[in-house]
Amino acid sequence: MIKDICRSERCRYSDLEAKLVKDFKVQIGFRQEGPGDEIFEFKEEIYWVFKYLKMIRFIQDGPDGLICISSEGIEFLNSQLPGESKLEDIDLAGIKDYFNSFELELDPIVVSYKQLTEFADKDKVNRTLSSFYCSKDPDIQDFVRCSMDKFDDKSICRSYLILDRKNSDDENFCVLGFFALALKILRVDQSKLSRKQKKDMNLLREQEGIPSYFIAQLGKNDIFKYNFKGKYLLDEAVNIVYDCIGLLGGTIVWLEANKEADSVVKFYKDYGFIELQSELQEDGVKRMQLVKYLNRE
Known about the structure:
The protein is built from 11 helices and 9 strands. The chain has helices at 2-8, 13-28, 35-55, 71-80, 92-101, 113-119, 122-130, 138-153, 195-200, 230-248, 262-271, and strands spanning 59-61, 67-69, 108-112, 158-164, 174-187, 209-220, 252-258, 274-280, 286-293. The strands form 2 sheets. Strands 3-4-5-6-7-9-8 form a 7-stranded mixed β-sheet, with helices on both faces.
């Protein structure tokens, strides 16, 4: 998309949008639920990409209403295209470095799904949730867009959104990330636990399940993944669990991760979660269960 913007030099948003939608359909054959949905879905993505590029001052609106590359964007392109290099030679890693190095000013606030529905109208809530993208885990994206309200209404879990007050507007709140918390029994096989593990969990003899706090979902919005750290999500989730422990007791918070997702597992372990056990689940994925003992904090 950046290359298309550069080639167009100065253009109207609507013209570039139409070109990108046409190119996307022809080259990738994107299909979702129907002709109308597929175009609408991609237009929404284009809107958020443009908004993000403006936030990091890569592009700007000119006084004549046309979009053009900003001075910061031109400086970056010149650094990436020395000598006789062409636009096609831009390294994707270089573009990611630009996004990652730009110090986008954010003002994050934690808002429960219930709070969001209380201070925003239904259309704005839907637009906000539909702006959450998670390309690495479509199930997380689908949960935020389609299932969060159902799980909240049935008290299966409580969902929390990290909104950015700095860059939100009348149309949409900017979603930086989200997490969902639940009460869940952690099933254990005492024969496979060490004496220390049993002590850490305050297990009674023959006890097979531990009432505990479960981080059911957690994810960053792709749009802001270069400017927002996942540690913030875990910090806020654990802080809420601490509040619950003060009221109800308990010592354990836990979560699950795909055993093959090395970077994700490392992220949780670096935060202080400890591998407990692994199990092959109904969807055929082997997931690791990791626990954190909050009574040690």
